[in-house]
Sequence to fold (172 residues):
Amino acid sequence: MKPIVPIQIETDRLLLRIFEEADWDGLNEMFSDEDCVRHTIKTVLPKWQVWRMLAAYVGHWQMRGYGPYAVVEKTSGKMMGPVGLWYPGDWPEPEIKYSLSKKYWGKGFATEAALAVKEMAANHMNRKRLISLILPENLASISVASRLGGKFEKTIPFRDGTANVYAYDLSK
Fold:
């Protein structure tokens, strides 16, 4: 499928682009860190499974015409993690996804990247809203969602537990 959104976005500090094979090592750093996966997939991944995640990110773009971007810090050229649009088969609706390697936490990178994604989606997608699904105990992600203008909507059953739905109004 042809992309329905830009395949690249830039901010002051970041380049957001489609994932490439060379991003495998950067993703492995994130997915092999217990702190990074605690509130998402809940278990670290061996490197061979990280390859599957990389393929899923690339495949999402092929299936939906949009997907997660590889976030690259401009000054270092390092890939930090995925931020973008995510809508796998069991999700209730498309979401803004953000997850960075731990060494990039607390520096505003996730908020900066996710704000760029939110603005891009408002300008290029025919949607009135997006969501983020966040586990109730994930206070850092809840804080990012709040900075993005996300409003807590409800708690839903999700996979093996519950998730909070934070909604973003794109019609403004």
